[in-house]
Amino acid sequence: MHGGAPHGAQDPDDCRVRAPQSADSGGSWDTLDPFNLFCAYHLGITRDNGFKMQALPDVARRFGVDVQTLKQHLQEYGLETDALRRAGFDVEYAKLDIQVAPEGVSRRELARTMWEEIEDLRDDADDE
Predict the structure, then answer these.
(1) Which of 46, 58, 89, 115 could form a disulfide with 84, with the two C-beta atoms 3.0–4.6 Å apart?
(2) Which pLDDT score is estimated for 78?
């Protein structure tokens, strides 16, 4: 079976059906990976699927690293604001979409579609 959860099982990435996990339970929202960093830093998505723009020190604390390490990850993952803009991704518009998401809508699922857009933009840039 490709992707997704088996029928009746919860999709671990769907925050509409799960509560935030602790860092040691695996699949945590606080795992420092490209998607989680994008959600927290650029989109302001909080642990509880809320919205609050966070400065670098706040995001670093969330992921349990120092600011310099967080900056290195932003660069390594190609998630610096300028890099996203150069790729053609409108960070400000995306942030607004997340901010005004209606109650009951998973901000992380909205962010997942944005993440796919970024990946497509990067693929297009690689093809040129």
Answers:
(1) 89
(2) 93
